[in-house]
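Milestone 3.1: sequence recovery, worked example.
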């Protein structure tokens, strides 16, 4: 069965990005350069979850030819439960997640209203600090079957990302603004005056 992009492609609802490497590719475990991001899907977004499950099932059907004519009982599926697999990570609580990758750089943009025909307009994002682990986006992904080194499953391909909202960074360290949010610098001495420093 040939892969039908219409049945294996999903446009998500609002999701959160994590482990986001979308401006520069990273080496994966197989030594391949890939653009990648984890996508955190709120469990209450049942429509996105439904669409992903349907697309995974369609990709699995298309993969029968790779797997000897039937879907393996131990098929690896991309959608995972954050509460079960990342119980110590607050960002993953109440979310499903999957990892999406691409050999080619994804399209990265933000919405810019609508044109005269009512179609959405977009502006490309080239600043790598603007789309980051922790921000919110809508993502275009496609699912495809694989059979590699004895592993059989369905993987998620990363197509395009549209940033829709900022969020607290998930980069592993707090920003300067977060660390010093409660500090009062108004009463401190002139910062540029070195006179008497450590006298």
């Amino acid at each position: 069965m040939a892969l039908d992009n219409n049945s294996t492609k999903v446009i998500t609802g609002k999701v959160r990005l994590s482990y986001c490497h979308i401006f520069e590719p990273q080496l994966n475990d197989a030594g391949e350069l890939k653009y990648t991001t984890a996508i955190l899907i709120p469990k209450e977004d049942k429509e996105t979850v439904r669409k992903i499950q349907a697309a995974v099932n369609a990709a699995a059907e298309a993969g029968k030819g790779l797997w000897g004519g039937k879907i393996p009982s131990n098929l690896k599926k991309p959608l995972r439960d954050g509460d079960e697999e990342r119980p110590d990570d607050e960002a993953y609580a109440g979310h499903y997640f999957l990892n999406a990758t691409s050999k080619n750089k994804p399209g990265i943009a933000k919405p810019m209203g609508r044109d005269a025909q009512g179609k959405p307009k977009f502006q490309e994002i080239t600043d790598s600090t603007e789309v980051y682990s922790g921000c919110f986006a809508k993502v275009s992904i496609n699912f495809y079957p694989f059979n590699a080194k004895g592993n059989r499953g369905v993987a998620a391909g990363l197509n395009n990302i549209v940033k829709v909202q900022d969020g607290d960074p998930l980069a592993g360290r707090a920003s300067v603004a977060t660390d010093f949010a409660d500090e009062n610098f108004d009463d401190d001495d002139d910062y540029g005056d070195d006179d008497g420093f450590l006298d």
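Residues 191-199 have pLDDT under 50 and may be disordered. The longest strand covers residues 151-165.
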